[in-house]
Amino acid sequence: MKKIYLILPILAGIMFGSSGIFVRTLTQNGIDPTTLLFLRFSIAIIPILLAIFLTDRELFKIDKSDIPLFIACAICIIGLNLCYNESMNTIPLSLAAVLLSLAPIYVIIIAYIAFGEKITSKKVICMLLAIFGCVLMTGVLENSMMNISLFGIACGIGAGLFWAFYLIASKKSIKNGKHTFTILLYSIIIISIALIPFTDFGQINAFVSINPLLTIVFLIIHSTFSFALPYVFSTLSLNFIDSGTSSIFMSASEPFAALLFGLLIYGEIPTLVMLCGFILTLVSMTILSRS
User: Fold this and answer.
1) What's the predicted TM-score (pTM) here?
2) pLDDT per residue over 240-257, tens digit each?
């Protein structure tokens, strides 16, 4: 029966992997990066609120000492999304997703520098293989690097770094007794308020006026499926399977989903070498996540 719950992190990964479709659609319709983030996070507050109401209303309670960590998480989420959105707009979706999935490598390095945590030979080998896999995915060994945006790659690496810092900050908050839903709710409330001065509501009105019913449904689906539900599903899965297994299934399914969406919708066909790099990175990160 336990195996049934493996579908939760897989669904979360697929939903995260679908975000490129929404980002590119909104960008092509004149929505700038900060306005896009405001739409994503402000709408996501509703399903997160519902999740807390339906599970445990005690999760609304926080202390003043929690606020600095929530602000840190909010900054990391903004940085992650800005970088990831830009990378999805400028490089293949599969490469953007793989660069983001390198976050565990950054966590290991940061933990070694900041906390003196041991780096084993197994971790080093996995990290090197994952990085080599990413190099293969860029196409540099096939002289096709000119087709890949260096700025997009830099943004993808930046997204992974922000994701790593978010993992560290949220883990610290969890150790202080706070639930993932609590961290997420107050972080996105802080983000939504902070983004209001930088949001172009004229762009939102112009987009919605295209077809009010369809565009509003699209915005709700974008926020719910590419942000809120993946977090809910991945968190719920921890009630039935261990965090390592959940992380592996989510980390593996997100780049695969991005590869599939990029292939089917945008005709992003990887070469054989790029595909080998994709698989090498996924296998390396899976082993690393399991350890």
Assistant:
1) 0.84
2) 776 666 666 777 788 888
